[in-house]
Amino acid sequence: LLAPTEMSSPSLKTGAYILIGVGALTMLMGFLGCLGAVNEIRCLLGLYFTCLMIILITQVAAGLVIYFQKDKLKEELSRIVGNLIENYNSPNDDERNLEDAWDYVQRQIACCGWIGAKDWEKNEFIINQSMTVYPCSCSNSSKDFQVDSGFCNLDVPLNSTATYADWPVHEQGCMDGVEKWLKDNLGVILGVCTGVAVIELLGMILSISLCKNIHSEDYTKVPKS
């Protein structure tokens, strides 16, 4: 069976760690920002500004890494999905979670395999069943819509063989499906990213302005000799 370590990649792990770090930093940042604003503590507002700036820089850096490393990332995803498909139907709970996630992708995007349905010809269980079963999440047949995962039986005579071309599945591969989805929703994605960046910039500007106001108030309170 495929070990869980083979189902991951350095780039995906790095991305996950970055997201976890940014999430933790965001929670800390919000707490410090509220505390600094309520109690008018300049050092906390300065720390809030610094955290916002780090998050913004991290987001820009992550976007650049994804853009310039997209070919490498595509290769790693191809390897990961290929291994997942080949060993699909594993009793291991960790791998079962990955398989459920992949089934969800195939159902939502209406795709089959990474390049196409032919990828599933490498699956051990399907080979043992003489290609007379197919992944239910790939199905384009109405009778399989209620089945979320696992394999569905192909209606063929007993002891006969079949090929992926005989399966009632989507012809589009998930790689093309994902790329098409990204292109179709590029405007929304860019709009959300731009909106988040603008909000972060406004937070930085407001924190600096509040710091200056606190500094001015402290200066006017100092008694003149």
From TrEMBL:
Task: Give the UniProt entry's GO cellular component terms.
Answer: plasma membrane
Q: Which residues cross the membrane?
A: 16-38, 45-68, 188-211
Keyword terms: Membrane, Transmembrane, Transmembrane helix
Localization = Membrane
Membrane topology is: Multi-pass membrane protein
What is the superkingdom listed in this entry's lineage? Eukaryota
Matching PROSITE patterns: TM4_1
Asked whether the UniProt record includes DNA repair among its keywords, one would answer no
The record's comment on protein family reads: Belongs to the tetraspanin (TM4SF) family.
Output the PANTHER family linked to this UniProt entry. Answer: CD82 ANTIGEN, TETRASPANIN
Name it: Tetraspanin
